[in-house]
Specification:
Length: about 280
């Protein structure tokens, strides 16, 4: 059912050994079919939250649920979780370990005990989705950073998860690499995958996400991304900056150049195209 929670934390609390609580009493749901940005400054708990959602860490208190049912942390429960939710960690070198791209991407599906044909089909589809089919036989240590990022994501995609969770996927990418990655994510979303992305880049969240979860010291605030990012008090509490695109839109509206309901340009390229279409000169 679109919009219902695929995976959710209920009353979740977590602290690292000997550390203060990172999360306490957190309710956090990932609705099916939405693009969700988890926003917070460094150290706000983004990675911890993503690892709790994907089962890599276990809540100290509270529960993790898939389709409304508590996850059992036994072999069967964790397999069910792994085929529903896949996390791609921030550093691809923490994820890639096989000699070649194809071997790495095939590891997860092979471990599920799928027939060879099915594994091959999944690897091919995942490599195509990330636009790296030509790299299948390439040794992973010879890849560029952007290629390693895409190979790591392909490994998660080959598990055909309903929810793909990416920890700061654009960190370290150049602008072209970022655009290629966003295009690949658009393709996965169009094919029905729910995508969750942690980032501290408010402008990226504004242009990419439907919903946002802003991590504040009082816990996450969730809602439509444009609404949350227009809330200056919330951004201050989370110690995030204002999105540049929102300031531009506010200025254009105040000058009567942009109608109230008209979509605002979210990138410099969109602003240029918007200006060119209206004959506005800088
Ligand atoms: N392995 C760990 N052991 C102890 N403390 C950790 C560990 N990982 C993260 N932390 C602490 O937990 C808090 C949240 O970190 P993290 O979830 O990595 O935030 P973010 O991803 O938003 O930067 C920080 O205070 C961080 O120092
Ligand atoms: Mg992090």
């Amino acid at each position: 059912m679109p919009g219902s929670a695929v995976v959710e934390l209920v009353g979740a609390g977590f602290a690292y050994e000997d550390g203060p609580p990172v999360l306490s009493g957190v309710d956090f749901a990932v609705p099916e079919g939405r693009a969700l940005a988890v926003l917070g400054r460094n150290g706000s708990g983004k990675t911890t939250l993503l690892r709790l959602l994907s089962g890599g860490l276990r809540c100290g208190s509270g529960r993790l649920r898939v389709d409304g049912r508590d996850v059992a942390y036994d072999r069967k429960g964790l397999t069910r979780l792994r085929t529903t939710v896949q996390l791609v960690v921030q550093d691809p070198d923490d994820q890639l370990f096989a000699a070649s791209v194809g071997q790495d991407v095939s590891f997860g599906p092979m471990n599920l005990g799928l027939p060879e044909d099915e594994v091959r089909a999944r690897v091919r589809d995942a490599l195509e989705a990330l636009d790296i089919a030509a790299l299948e036989d390439r040794p992973t240590h010879l890849l560029s950073y952007g290629q390693r990022k895409r190979a790591a994501i392909a490994g998660a995609v080959a598990m055909r998860p309903r929810v793909l969770i990416l920890d700061e996927p654009t960190a370290g990418l150049d602008p072209h690499g970022q655009e290629r990655l966003l295009a690949a994510l658009d393709g996965l979303r169009a094919a029905g995958t729910t995508v969750v992305m942690a980032t501290h880049d408010v402008d990226l969240a504004l242009r990419w996400a439907d919903d946002a979860a802003v991590l504040t010291p009082d816990g996450p605030r969730t809602g439509p991304v444009a609404e949350l990012l227009a809330d200056a008090g919330l951004l201050d509490a989370a110690r995030l900056r204002r999105p540049w695109a929102m300031s531009v839109a506010r200025l254009l509206r105040a000058r009567g150049l942009l109608g109230e309901g008209e979509p605002a340009p979210c990138t410099p390229e969109e602003l240029d195209a918007w200006a060119a279409a209206r004959g506005v000169r800088g």
